UniProtKB/TrEMBL annotation:
Annotated ranges, domain Methyltransferase type: 160-249
Stored InterPro entries: Methyltransf_12 (IPR013217), SAM-dependent_MTases_sf (IPR029063), TPR-like_helical_dom_sf (IPR011990)
MF (Gene Ontology): methyltransferase activity
Domain of life: Bacteria
Lineage: Bacteria, Pseudomonadati, Pseudomonadota, Alphaproteobacteria, Hyphomicrobiales
Keywords attached to this entry: Methyltransferase, Transferase
Protein name: Predicted methyltransferase, contains TPR repeat
Gene3D superfamilies with a match to the protein in the record: Tetratricopeptide repeat domain (1.25.40.10), Vaccinia Virus protein VP39 (3.40.50.150)
Record organism: Devosia psychrophila
GO process annotations (BP): methylation
Keyword Cytoplasm: no
PANTHER family in alphabetical order: TRANS-ACONITATE 2-METHYLTRANSFERASE-RELATED
Amino acid sequence: MTPGNPLVLTKAFHSSGDVIADRRAGYAKMLAEGGDHTAAADLMSQALEITPDWAAGWDLMGAYAEKAGDVSAAISAWRHLEALDDEGVFGAGLKLAAHGAGVAANGTAVSYVEALFDQYAPQFEHALVDRLGYRVPEMLDEMVSQEMARLGIAGFARALDLGCGTGLMGERLRGKTEHLEGIDVSAAMIAETARKGIYDVLQKAELVAALTARRADADLVTAADVFIYCGAIQPVLAALVPALQPGGLAAFSLEAHDGPEALFLRPSLRYAHGVEPTRDALVLAGLDILRFETAVLRFDRGAPITGMLIVVRKPALALAAANAPTAMSRPD
């Protein structure tokens, strides 16, 4: 699940509590929609002089200033926002980190991601598939099908679709598994996909917590454009591997970069992972790499977003190997 661009959250359009400030914010929104982000930022600045504790207003101010090219003003707005938004719904910490003015917290910014996708749910499929050329579920499904044929797997008993969104991945998995479960942090996304009747079970939860609470009962786990919101891949894999049955498969995507860094946070507020560090992390997690490919995942503002498409397998003898006695070295 991934929108093409970070969105101004619905919460941002709530009233400031002051009629004049709201009116100026409304004019600012009209100017921004017309492309005049400098004027929009100026009007938001005036609105915030009246209502300095309006968190949503500072979020709009930062967005307009950033689009106007005034990064210093955007950073100043996000610092005000961070001080006002205790729950992190607006992702101020992520925005500061993405612009070199802070450090992103470890793990998923749950409140931000939940609010983002709660807003995005109604237009998710139209924007992602029709406008951004999104094909990750299709590509992952094809790779899984090829590996099933190669390994002689007729089907799966229990599949788990992480970040199930509106069911784009689930629609493709349905015919491959007897039992299909979807997990998503967004209640609105869960509601959208529930209408389709794809999944046997739907759960609203943060994925690492949900995986950690499971026993090794899944023989297929998928995550289409989900781990890009989770930060470092190692904690995700540490939760994923125990949730897989021995011999189980996992298929997922990541946005990619070619540098030596394990990951960095893009201005889109999505993480890009390094190709070689990711490969190393999979090996260290004890997974067998079946497929590891790079491809264009979608387009963002007209530019192609390159990512990794990965299929791994938990070794069938992982449990036995873990319990086996260590061989003693022969004396010289």
